[in-house]
């Protein structure tokens, strides 16, 4: 009986991630196809990728940069739209943009009368603008969530780690279940 239960657990571990991945991808494909009114599964998703890539190419062109700048300036003038647009752009740029902010893995000593330390990313090497000389800003992602905590810490309590930031993020988000990335 114990062996059968072990097989069942192993089957769950192998099956559930595949089913969830297929379910999410199917949901994305059908939703995008539905928005575009296309009845061939997946064509809407492919079309969306082509459109986004084309917009990126046009946005990188010298000829269209002024139009992009004018459009962004317009969005900056609208109160609620400005907040939504800049927040979304900053978060997206932090992960995949030219100005990646989650590129410096760090170990933070909380120093609250214990040996507790947390893992995060150095996002600002100075908090001087906040009137906190000698401090840095660290983002600490939560495990199994797309949220986190921003900490302002004395720089002496933050140790930068030489490791791959993507693997480091996966380690944190998985709650330490994945292998710890190699330190270089």
Order of helices and strands: HHHHEEEEEH
The main pleated sheet reads as: 5 strands, antiparallel
Please tell me what the overall shape is.
flat
- Kindly provide the radius of gyration, computed on alpha-carbon positions and rounded to a whole number of angstroms: 22 Å
* Spatial sequence of strands, sheet with the most strands: 4-3-2-1-5
What distance separates the N and C termini? 46 Å
Number of strands: 5
Any idea how many domains?
2
- Proportion of strand residues: 15-25%
| pLDDT < 50 stretches | none
Mean pLDDT: 84
Helix share, percent = 40-55%
Give me the secondary-structure category.
alpha+beta
Total number of helical segments? 5
Question: What's a concise summary of this model?
Answer:
By secondary structure, this protein is of the alpha+beta class.
What would your notes on this structure say?
Helix 1 (2-36) packs across helix 2 (43-60). This protein has helices spanning 2-36, 43-60, 62-77, 79-96, 165-173, and strands spanning 105-109, 117-124, 135-141, 148-154, 158-160. It has a five-stranded antiparallel sheet, with helices on one face. It is built from five helices and five strands; from the N terminus they run H-H-H-H-E-E-E-E-E-H. The mean pLDDT is 84. With 184 residues, the protein is α+β, with helices and mostly antiparallel strands. 52% of the residues lie in helices and 16% in strands. It starts with a helix and ends in an 11-residue tail after the last helix. The radius of gyration is 22 Å and the shape is flat. A hairpin with a 7-residue loop joins strand 1 (105-109) and strand 2 (117-124). It folds into two domains: 2-96, no CATH class; 105-173. The longest helix has 35 residues, at 2-36.
